[in-house]
Amino acid sequence: MSDPRTDTLPPSGAPVRLWHLAFRSRNLVIGLALTLVFVIGALLSFLWTPYDITGLDIANKIKPPSARNLLGTDHFGRDILSMIMVGARTSIAVAVVAVGIGMVFGVPLGLWAAARKGSLLDEVIMRANDLVFAFPSLLIAILITAIFGPSAVNAIIAIGIFNIPVFARLTRSGALSLWQRDFILAARVAGKNSARISVEHILPNVTNLLIVQGTIQFSLGILAEAGLSYVGLGAQPPTPSWGRMLAESQTMISFAPHMALFPGLAILLTVLGLNLMGDGLRDLFDPKLQRSRT
Amino acid sequence: MTHMLKTTSLASVLALTASMAVAQQTDLTIGLQLEPPHLDPTSAAAGAIDSVLYANVFEGLTRFGPDGSVGPGLATSWEISEDGLTYTFTLAEGVKFHDGTTFDAEDVKFSLDRARAEDSANAQKALFAGISEVTVVDPQTVEVTLSAPDGNFLFNLAWGDAVIVAPESIENIKTTPIGTGAFMFDNWVQGDRIDLVRNEEYWGAPAYLDSATFKFISDPTAAFAAMMAEDLDAFYAFPAPENLPQFDADPRFKVIVGSTEGETILAMNNKMPPFDDVRVREAVAHAINRQEIIDGALFGYGSPIGTHFAPHHPDYVDLTDISDYDPEKSKALLEEAGIETPIQVKMTLPPPSYARRGGEIIAAQLRQVGIEPQIENVEWAQWLETTFRGKDYGLTIVSHTEPLDINIYARPDYYFQYDNPDFQALMEKVAVESDPEARSEMFKTAQTTIAEDYVNAYLMQLPLLTVAKTGLMGLWPNAPTQATDLTGVTWEE
Questions:
Q1: Which of the 8 DSSP states describes residue B453?
Q2: DSSP structural state of residue B137
Q3: How far is A57 from chain B (nearest CA, A)?
Q4: For an engineered disulfide with B132, which of A65, A102, B147, B311 has Cβ 3.0 to 4.6 Å away?
Q5: Residue A172 lies in a domain
Q6: CATH 3.90.76.10 placement within chain B
């Protein structure tokens, strides 16, 4: 109990056991596999896609899946598989940066608030967070992109802002329980100030929480990006985006369902994958919870 | 007992529906994409107002026919003086407004004076600018004096902005339009529909339909669903051309393909570098493959144009060869103009699918020659604000749906900022010319001038795509003006 790390992480020097545990968790494996498929697809698209998507090929528009175009073509004759691969890039980039914004601002705020628990600063930070929470995030994101113009960058900022309070709260609540611990007292006695304690002792111990939450926020970010693109406020053409692919295929769904089906599945599977992965990671990091489940 | 009761009531319901199905349908529910902001056609530019009210509720002295010709409306005949300055209109007799008040020469004077007044809110004040005086001769006769001869005057009076309104009902016209037409305004459920009922005391041939409902459905997917579910009897100007083959294949429906007055253009900001150089504009024009845009954005409906003039107009000259698809020539022109490619330009796209889809296709075509449009999708309000009024754009796509609107090229402060004094002089001349031959020649010269100056890239004439139930007859196939004239609409026996 004196070493806080044993509470949360398996003993060091046991990577084999970690892998063993990971593979026992079906959620984690499936989630990781799904996520990897899309990440690899996105990375691959930098080097190679089945077809070039910047050129249009009107003569080959709205072709159902075939050997030539595995997932068919869209209304401009572009290969849907290639579009989904490049679209994954947009989704992942937006989500990564948005989660990054949330962590970079949210985590220090949460640590700071926890270190000064009960002070005016704590109040100010947390009430400001409540304020951001009080607004429906997608509406505000629409507002932001409507004011500053629709673009992927503005979508990232809009989604990122709403990640800040999520991480701030999580960090604060995780940190608060840690501040009660003996080893923090020991650190204090050793003469470390609260900033140093936060960085050296609190932060490493909330990392697991942050990783799990980050995975979930990542999937929410992908959903939010798809939503914004769907209403035309995300990445602008010709940058492909899953949400816009859905929106554009809407009137053709009755005779070309493949145009909506595949980007829809891409969103579904990525979000599902990330959520499963988040669940799996939580189980892995928190053996107590897993035991109680099984 | 209960069971029997149920069966009987069910049977009677069935019988009732059956008898209703046999009876001839005498009403109509028709879908439109845009809802009017209010109901006064004489004080707003919104074409959606005319789409509901023109010819149905409001009438002018003259009116457009389905083919765009100008014929008698509330004025049954007219005489034009030798010098072309005085028009004497004889008005129809026994005409009453829907509120029961009589229509006479005073109403004409009131309407025209109101439209041309200093503080008039009329969106097309230019139509009345030539009028110097309106005189009431007797209740059935009105005399209009012009300051200069105007070959277009009868055409001008046929516009929806020139309909006759009454001083008695002008106050509430925006919510309760009172006109002289074959249909009376009944009810407006904002955001949903406008109901019209037949005017039993109409002075002319009465309408066949008892009542008509205009349903406003802006979303193409919802429009498709509503038609397929037969919630609508027709959809005028159907927004999604990709769905038409399905309607065509369905025996319940027919598709009417007509033409609008909508010259769809890729407008260029003529004052903004690099488009201030005619060679760059020419390069843009040659980089564009019209057929690809028509196939990709309009699914094959629509005809290519080479100038800002409707192909169905008798004076139309086919100038598509001046700006034929020739990307090599584009590259050469850009090089000649000393343009460092790739160049980045801002391209704003309003919501209609011809603009959004067409814009993506054009962007891909322009990229082939080294012009990189940065697409920005905007809503109409934003487009009007920043592109149309603010002129903050490089390229944009829009359809100009007013009839015979080539004179917009004579306005140097119009959003594409084309300033050619010769062209302006030509338009002034054509405005006062009443000889048809000479007018025709002038229009041909005007078309050639703007095509050779590559003011804009002229893409295609927007089609009018209407979906209707098979038995519905009498809808206008073409749109010579913004109107959904239901006065001649009937159901097949």
A1: T
A2: E
A3: 9
A4: B147
A5: yes
A6: 61-167
| Residues on chain B touching A143 (C-beta within 8 angstroms) | none
Q: Quick one: tokens of A281?
A: 């990671």
- Please list the residues that pair with B62 across neighbouring strands: B72
Measure CB to CB from residue B240 to each of A149, A236, A251 and give the nearest one: A251
Report the CATH architecture of B61-167: Alpha-Beta Complex (3.90)
Q: Do B367 and A254 touch (CB under 8 A)?
A: no
Domain at A73, CATH number = 1.10.3720.10
Which residues in chain A have Cβ-Cβ distances shorter than 8 Å to B221? Answer: 250-251, 253
Q: Please give the residue of chain A at the shortest CA–CA distance from B350.
A: A232
- Please calculate the CA angle B173-B175-B181 and round it to the nearest 5 degrees: 55
Whether A251 sits inside 8 A of B375 (CB atoms) is no
- Write out pLDDT tens, residues B414-468: 999 999 999 999 998 888 777 788 889 999 999 999 999 999 999 999 999 999 9
User: Using CA atoms, how far apart are residues B442 and B315, in angstroms rounded to an integer?
Assistant: 9
Q: Which two tokens stand for residue B58?
A: 């409001």
Q: Does a structural domain hold residue A275? A: yes
Length of chain B in terms of residues written: 493
- First-to-final CA distance of chain A: 24
Give start-end residues of each CATH 3.10.105.10 domain in chain B.
260-463
Measured distance CA(B324)–CA(B328) in Å, rounded: 11
Per-residue pLDDT of chain B (493 residues; tens, 9 = 90+): 445 444 445 445 444 444 445 567 899 999 998 899 899 999 877 788 999 999 999 999 999 988 888 899 999 999 999 888 999 999 999 999 999 999 999 999 999 999 998 888 888 888 888 899 999 999 999 999 999 888 889 999 999 999 999 999 899 999 999 999 999 999 999 999 999 999 999 999 999 999 999 999 988 889 999 999 999 999 998 988 999 999 999 999 999 999 888 899 999 999 998 899 999 999 999 999 999 999 999 999 989 999 999 888 888 999 999 999 999 999 999 999 888 878 999 999 998 889 999 999 999 999 999 999 999 888 888 888 889 989 999 999 999 988 888 989 998 889 999 999 999 999 988 887 777 888 899 999 999 999 999 999 999 999 999 999 999 999 998 888 888 999 999 998 7
How many domains are contained in chain A? Answer: 1
Separation CA B109–CA B138 (nearest Å): 12
Q: State whether CATH 3.10.105.10 applies to domain B260-463.
A: yes
Using CA atoms, how far apart are residues A143 and A158, in angstroms rounded to an integer? 9
Interchain pair B360, A238: CB under 8 A: yes
Question: Chain A residue with minimal CA distance to B292?
Answer: A58
Q: Which domain holds residue A264?
A: 14-293
- Partner residue facing B360 (CB), from A237, A251, A253: A237
- Phi, psi at residue B119, to the nearest 5°? -95, 20
Q: How far is B46 from chain A (nearest CA, A)?
A: 24
* C-alpha–C-alpha distance, residues A14 and A74, integer Å: 50
Closest residue of chain A to B240, computed from CA coordinates: A251
Residue reference for tokens 């564009």 = B288
The span from the CA of B258 to the CA of B467, in Å, is 11
**Record: contact A238-B364, CB cut-off 8 A:** yes
Name the token pair of B165: 């309104």
Rg over alpha carbons for chain B, rounded to the nearest Å, is 25
Q: Which of helix, strand or coil describes residue B368?
A: coil
CB A145 within 8 A of CB A158: yes
Q: Which residues are within 8 A (CB) of B94 and not within 5 positions of it... i.e. 6 or more apart?
A: B203
Q: What's the sign of the alpha-carbon dihedral A240, A242, A244, A246? A: positive
Residue in A76, A149, A250 closest to B360 by CB:
A76
